[in-house]
Amino acid sequence: MTPILEAKRLCKSFGGVEALSELNLQVREREIVGLIGPNGAGKTTFFNVITGFHPPTGGGILFKGRDITGWKPHRIAHAGLIRTFQTTTLFKEATVMENMLLGFHMQYRSGPFGELFRTKKQRQEMRSIRERILEILDFMGLADSRDEMVKNLPYGHQRALGVSLALAANPEMLLLDESVTGMNAEEIAVMMGHIKRISEEKKIAVMVVEHNMRVVMGICNRIIVLNFGTKIAEGSPEEIKSNKMVIEAYLGTEEG
């Protein structure tokens, strides 16, 4: 199967320090891949490079077979590679629905004339957008909270809203950066279920950067381990658990 994402000998340096070094990895369609490693291993740098926030200093990136090396972030997102961030930017004084409508704003087709005069096309578009929003919110367990102010939502629901906004961009691959940080055990279990369903039901490839090993081992088909910007291991959760290099570099010194 052709990989949906492929990094080929990817390098990134900052002031002479190599954050990524000759990194080769692939993600296949509908797969959940974990990217783990100690702090400073290069995980977030990898996300920043493949989404266009930092240009690589060497190597290349293929997405759906197209060379996207050097593309701007908005172009990469438009192509279907969507990322969430460790800290989700939400409008806390707005409702869930209002946040989702803002997320869809760039997808409006009717233009300023339609916005101003409420044309038939614009009304049809808004109906379609609202239906799509409700479908996403229902999928993420937020339908009953659509009229709630975001600031009043439980923390787990706020993180779920961040993922909902990413789904609103119609991703073919989703990059989740520390998606369960700050959650309690119940919220983590719910988010794990959401991620599995995104892969299985939405047929979206997912790559997760995550420090919570219970999450990584529980949802990932395959795990890639970085240390000092270099891939030191790759395999199934069971293979990674028993890998001596991984235990020394990471698993043996981290909690959770």
Helices, strands, pairings?
Elements: E1 5-14, E2 17-27, E3 32-36, H1 43-50, E4 58-63, E5 66-67, H2 73-79, E6 81-83, H3 96-104, H4 111-117, H5 120-139, H6 155-167, E7 173-177, H7 185-200, E8 205-209, H8 213-219, E9 222-227, E10 230-235, H9 237-241, H10 244-249
Parallel strand pairs: 3-8, 3-9, 6-7, 7-8
Antiparallel strand pairs: 1-2, 1-4, 4-5, 9-10
Molecular structure report:
- With 256 residues, this protein is an alpha/beta fold.
- Helix content is 38%, strand content 23%.
- The strands form two sheets. The protein has a six-stranded mixed β-sheet with strand order 6-7-8-3-9-10, with helices on both faces. It has a four-stranded antiparallel β-sheet with strand order 2-1-4-5, with helices on one face.
- Classified by CATH, the class of the largest domain is Alpha Beta
Please indicate the percent range of residues in DSSP E strands (runs of 2 or more).
15-25%
User: What are the segments in which pLDDT stays under 50 over at least 5 consecutive residues?
Assistant: none
**What is the H level of CATH, i.e. the homologous superfamily of the largest domain?**
P-loop containing nucleotide triphosphate hydrolases
How many strands, what sense, and barrel or not for the largest sheet? 6 strands, mixed
Order of helices and strands: EEEHEEHEHHHHEHEHEEHH
Rg calc: 19 Å
Second rung of CATH, namely the architecture of the largest domain: 3-Layer(aba) Sandwich
Q: What's the number of domains? A: 2
Task: Give me the CATH fold name of the largest domain.
Answer: Rossmann fold
Structural class: alpha/beta
End-to-end Cα distance, whole Å, is: 34 Å
Shape: globular
Spatial order of the strands in the main sheet?
Answer: 6-7-8-3-9-10
What's the number of extended β-strand segments?
10
Helix count from the secondary structure assignment:
10
Please give the share of residues in helix: 25-40%
